[in-house]
Amino acid sequence: PPQQRYLLGLSPQGGDGDEDFNQSQMPTHSQVQRNLERRSQDQVNQKVSELVQFLLVKDQKKIPIKRADMLKKVIREYKDVYSEIVNRAGKTLQQVFGLQLVEIDTKHHIYILTSDLPRAEGENLHRDNQTAKLGLLLIILSFIFMKGNTAKDGAVWEFLRRLRVQPGERHEVFGDVKKLVTEEFVRQK
After folding, report:
1. Model-level pTM?
2. Mind listing the domains of the chain with CATH numbers?
3. How confident is the model over 110-150, as pLDDT tens digits?
4. More confident position, 26 or 185
5. 3-state SS record for the chain
6. CB 98 within 8 A of CB 139
């Protein structure tokens, strides 16, 4: 079923960098629950946020996501609660961003993010500046949410630069981005 495709903990096998995380080492559901009890919710939630950010950056760069990279670069010492972290990250991606984590290579455990949002057709394709500004606002608010509800100005600007929205340059849709973010969005709270 489609829902199970993003639940990465359901079908792990060794190979392609996953040698240290094979079927025999995969904790059962009850073991994961016991392991979760030993970890603070803040620690687990932090790992979920880090994994969501990692997946979004990989997706933005259009790089397929390897389970081995998730384990090595994000999950690290939390392998014992790997499936729970991935499941929570999958739910966050779906609820916040309308994205689903899909396994495209079951042998090497490679994943991509796909959109769950309905395709826009006809009148829905019409975009105006207010819709575009709302989209930018939602991206910024999502970034702040993923940073634990607070983010430094510098981190927000760096994030926008990665999206090719430069604070010092006039944007063809948003106009003066710095003014839009620091004045208009702030004024709207």
Report:
1. 0.53
2. 30-115 (1.10.10.1200), 121-187 (1.10.10.1210)
3. 999 988 877 655 555 455 667 778 888 888 888 888 888 88
4. 185
5. CHHHHHCHHHCCCCCCCCCCCCHHHCCCHHHHHHHHHHCCHHHHHHHHHHHHHHHHHHHHCCCCEEHHHHHHHHHHHHHHHHHHHHHHHHHHHHHHHCEEEEEEECCCCEEEEEECCCCCCHHHHCCCHHHHHHHHHHHHHHHHHHCCCCCCHHHHHHHHHHCCCCCCCEECCCEEHHHHHHHHHHHCC
6. no
